[in-house]
C-alpha cells in the first residue's frame, strides 16, 4: 500500500513539474554550467571610465561671537562673514562616465562634474586624462566631456534604442561605486517610464534592481547585446546604499543630448505648447475611456505646435509614435527626445473617438523677446534682473505653464529686492493695482511711483502682495 502511494505521488509530481516547469531546465552540460557574463563585461567595461573632480571652495572664518542675535540685529546676518578671513579648500568627488565615441567623447551625469575646477578621467587600463566640458543639459542631468587621446581610437559603447527594452530584460550596471574601482553588478529592468523620481525636469527613467551605489552615477547600464541602454543616475535609498531600486536615463535621451551638445553646444527640444493633467480613474469614467491613460489638455499657447496639429482643449493625448503616455512628465519626455523638424504621429481621444494627428516638431519661439533688464533705481525691485516671459523662456526654465508677463530671473545679494524677500522665479503680476504686461511697462510703472508701492507677485501657485509706504 505504501509503495502504491509513493508511486502515485511520483506520477503526480512528474505531471505537475512537466506542466508547470516545462520551460525551466537545469544545466544540461558542463559548458552550460560555465555560462558567464565575462565576455560581455570584457567588451563593455573598457568604455566605462572613472571621473574624479576637484572644486576649490572659498570660505570665511569668523568668530562665533558674530552669531549673536545682538550683532545680527544691528549689522545684518552677513556681518561676521564679511569681516572674516577668507581661505580656500579643495573638495573632491567621484563618479563614472561612458565613452560613446572612439575620439574620446564621454557622457556622464551633470551632478558628477557640476562646479568642478578640474576634471580627471581614468580609463579601465589606469591611464589618466584631463577632460574638458563640451556642454551640459541641466534638464536631463547629463553632461558631455572630451579627452584628448592624441589620435588613438578608444574603446566605446554603441547606443541602443531604449524603446525596445522590456521589463524583465537582463542588464549590467558598470561604474565606480564608493571609489573602490570599477565594479559590475547584474539585474533586470524592473520598470520603465518612471516619471516621479524628481531628479531632472525631463525624465522617464529606467528602473533596475542591478545594484547602483554612490559613485555609480554616470556609469553604464548595458543590455545583453553589449550596448548602452541607459546612464545610471540615481538610487532610492534611506541609508545611502543600494536597496535594489536604481534609475537610469534612457539611451534615446542620451543620444539626443550628446548629438545636440556636440553639434551646437546646447540642446534645443521640440515644443508642444500645451499643458494638462494625468487622466485619473474618475476622469476616465467621465470621459468615456475604458482605462485611465493619457494627458487631458487644459490649455494651449496660441499658435503653438499643439494648436497647429489640431489639438483642442479637452482632448486626451493617448500616445506618441504608438507609445502610450500616462502623465504630463512622460508626454514631455516623449516630445523632448525627438529631433526638431518634420512631424510625429500622435493619437488623441475626442468625443468618444480616437483621432490620429501629426504634430510639427518645432522649437519654442522667442516671442516676445526676453529683454533682460536690471532694475537699478531705488524701487523695491532694485537689484533684480527681470525678463519678458516667452515660450522659449518657459521651456528653458521649465516654468510649467505659459502665462505671459514679467518674471524675476536674478536677485543681487543684499539688494533692495533681496531685503524685501523677492525670489528668482517670482512673476510680477501687478504694480500699484495695474496689471504688468511687459518689462518696459513695469519700468514705466516703477518710474511713476515715488512714495507708495504695492506689488503683487505669483509664487508656487499663490499670489503674494507687498505694500510699502515711504
Topology at a glance:
Blueprint: H1 2-20, H2 30-33, H3 38-44, E1 48-61, H4 69-75, H5 79-83, E2 85-101, E3 105-109, H6 110-113, E4 118-122, E5 128-137, E6 142-147, E7 170-175, E8 183-194, E9 205-208, E10 220-223, E11 228-235, E12 246-250, H7 251-264, E13 274-278, H8 281-287, E14 295-300, H9 305-309, E15 316-320, E16 323-324, H10 328-336, E17 343-350, E18 353-360, E19 373-375, E20 384-388, H11 391-397, E21 406-411, H12 416-419, E22 427-431, E23 434-435, H13 439-448, E24 452-459, E25 462-469
Antiparallel strand pairs: 1-2, 1-4, 2-3, 3-6, 4-5, 5-6, 7-8, 7-10, 8-9, 9-12, 10-11, 11-12, 13-14, 14-15, 15-16, 15-17, 17-18, 19-20, 20-21, 21-22, 22-23, 22-24, 24-25
State the gist of this model.
The protein is an alpha+beta fold and 470 residues long.
Question: How would you explain this protein's 3D organization?
Answer:
- There is one protein chain.
- The chain has helices at residues 2-20, 30-33, 38-44, 69-75, 79-83, 110-113, 251-264, 281-287, 305-309, 328-336, 391-397, 416-419, 439-448, and strands spanning 48-61, 85-101, 105-109, 118-122, 128-137, 142-147, 170-175, 183-194, 205-208, 220-223, 228-235, 246-250, 274-278, 295-300, 316-320, 323-324, 343-350, 353-360, 373-375, 384-388, 406-411, 427-431, 434-435, 452-459, 462-469.
- With 470 residues, it is α+β, with helices and mostly antiparallel strands.
- The protein folds into 4 domains: 45-147, Trypsin-like serine proteases (Thrombin, subunit H, Beta Barrel), CATH 2.40.10; 162-264, Beta Barrel (Thrombin, subunit H), CATH 2.40.10.10; 274-360, Roll (Pdz3 Domain), CATH 2.30.42.10; 373-469, PDZ domain (Pdz3 Domain), CATH 2.30.42.10.
- Strands 19, 20, 21, 22, 23, 24 and 25 form a 7-stranded antiparallel sheet that branches. The protein has a 6-stranded antiparallel β-barrel with strand order 1-2-3-6-5-4. Strands 7-8-9-12-11-10 form a 6-stranded antiparallel beta barrel.
- A hairpin with a 7-residue loop joins strand 7 (170-175) and strand 8 (183-194).
- The radius of gyration is 28 Å and the shape is globular.
- The chain starts with a helix and ends with a strand.
